[in-house]
Design a protein that fits this description.
By secondary structure, the protein is an alpha+beta fold. It has one domain. Helices cover 38% and strands 31% of the residues. The chain contains three helices and six strands; from the N terminus they run αββαβββαβ.
Length: 126
């Protein structure tokens, strides 16, 4: 349980860094999240071109991966920690909170017992 809390706090810390850096640096608006089996994923954000973001996300993901794109939005992936090769859910929404909630709900909806966020990213001002 302590490990999950530490990961959660670390995730919140990095989320804050990304939010603050989005306002201080110029950004592009193409991103992608690749989702594979057993918790495999790849992510790419703030690319100039959508095809480049897709290629970068797919390159990071092991195996046969489904790619979802984001443009000025956020994407999240939740997996079942009790069975990482089982239920998972992913979502693309305009706000990070909505993406996190939707991905978690989908994971539980597909039979997950202990769904946690595995990956997330926001593109440009998503």
């Amino acid at each position: 349980m302590t490990c999950i809390l530490i990961r959660h706090r670390a995730g919140l810390f990095f989320a804050a860094i990304l939010i603050f850096s989005a306002f201080s640096t110029p950004s592009h608006a193409a991103g992608a999240l690749a989702v594979g089996k057993c918790g495999a994923y790849g992510q790419a954000f703030d690319y100039k071109r959508q095809d480049a973001a897709i290629a970068a996300a797919r390159k990071q993901c092991n195996g046969d991966c489904t790619v979802v794109t984001m443009k000025r939005a956020c994407a999240a992936l939740a997996i079942d920690m009790k069975n990482p090769c089982g239920a998972f859910g992913y979502a693309v929404e305009s706000r990070i909170s909505s993406a996190l909630n939707a991905a978690s709900k989908k994971c539980y909806g597909y039979g997950g017992k202990e769904c946690v966020i595995r990956a997330w990213a926001c593109d440009a001002r998503g």
